[in-house]
Amino acid sequence: MPVPALIPLYLVVVLLPLTLAWAQGLPSRPLVDDLASGAGFVAFAVILAEFFLIGRFRSVTRRAGSDVVMRAHQLLARTALVLVLVHPFLYVSPMTPPPVWDVTSQTALNYDWAGLWPGIIAWLLLGGLVAMAIARDVSGARYEHWRLLHGLGAVLVAAFGLLHVLRAGRYSADPLLGWVWIAFLALAVGSLLYVYLVAPLFRWRRPWRVTSVTPAAERTWTVTLNPDFEGRVEYKAGQFAWLNIGKGVFSLNENPFSISSAPSAGRDVEFIIKELGDFTNTIGQVRPGTRAWMDGPHGHLTHEGHDDAPGIALIAGGVGIAPLIGILRELAVTADPRPTALLYGNRTEAQIVCREELQNLAEAHGTEVIHVLSETKKGWTGDTGMIDATLLERHFGTKSRRNWLYILCGPPPMLTSVKATLIGLGVPASRILSEQFVYD
Ligand SMILES: Cc1cc2nc3c(=O)[nH]c(=O)nc-3n(C[C@H](O)[C@H](O)[C@H](O)COP(=O)(O)OP(=O)(O)OC[C@H]3O[C@@H](n4cnc5c(N)ncnc54)[C@H](O)[C@@H]3O)c2cc1C
Question: Is-above-0.70 flag for pTM?
Fold first, then answer.
């Protein structure tokens, strides 16, 4: 199913409870009351659907890319928060027990405390959850702790939300809608249990061992893993995996890293990891023989499936080279006859990863390798400055390169400006793939 088909599917799911409520044909109430209920319905369905948009389901990330899925997750959470915030304040009908003749509660709102308190708790918790997510980087909390709290908080919001909907809702008193809500919650919590309990159990039978950790550039390491089981892991060049090194299989201490080896080159899997925080700063101390676990492959950043592209351009900023080097290696191993070019930006020369290998690839496979540095020393003969419009136009501005496949990985501002420039040069958006390493 292509990406555009995922959007209607998503809409059908989150609008299903609203549609079922409308189909009940209950006597009408003031419009704003129904708007308030509608806002609550859509918000709660969006919240439950959020459990699937956590970047771990390959059927979704293969099509849209994990970074896009995670950004959708963040944006939709904020949308749900706005709807939830306004939901209780829109109602205008009196909060009194309805008269005995009003069996459908069209003249008054259910003010029963048993239905209200779970809603108030869910309302407060959701605000806290979104605020905590937005403030994650400034809070100084360890990512793993934050993730655990975020998951537990989300389950509580969902559970209290369900209690509120079932007890206070005029429309959710309908058994069919009530069961739909219960099924949605079961699927949501089930998906979390699958990711953090069931999937690790399967992984337990597929352990890996670290075979080497070697310097790749300044504060950047190449980590190679060998499967400690029969068979191999199938992946596409450029995809990424969640890596857990030296911890138990159920540990939340796992981080996403792009696979930089070529799938056709053998069973070993390689990563290029830059020191950035508490886990990556210790990567150079990992000893060969250490046990590791891998959840993957994930992601859509690959040249595979784009056989009609007449050429391939790879544009990397910093450690964004990791997936692109995997693609270059695969193109070389499979002797792909198409012309290839790599535009690789770094701050200093010492940060260039696998420089010698890139040189060899350039000679053996005919890849055009263009290095760009923003801080140069005397004797530097490559390009200087940033990967900007002038540079892109110089290297990719010809008509023959317009229909190439462009694969981008690097800091978000670089990706935004490179994409805009390429589109300005006439490259169709469908020919540009990109992935960023930060979800914010
Ligand atoms: C799809 C993808 C592919 C990546 N590929 C590479 C790669 O090939 N090489 C490389 O050096 N880096 C890569 N990264 C970035 C890498 O995941 C982070 O640098 C690393 O997780 C930092 O962890 P830390 O504990 O050292 O730092 P921390 O100080 O704990 O975290 C620093 C920042 O890294 C991010 N981060 C930390 N832990 C996680 C996590 N479990 N999940 C998601 N984000 C997290 C957060 O934005 C956090 O604010 C990739 C990231 C993504 C999303």
Answer: yes
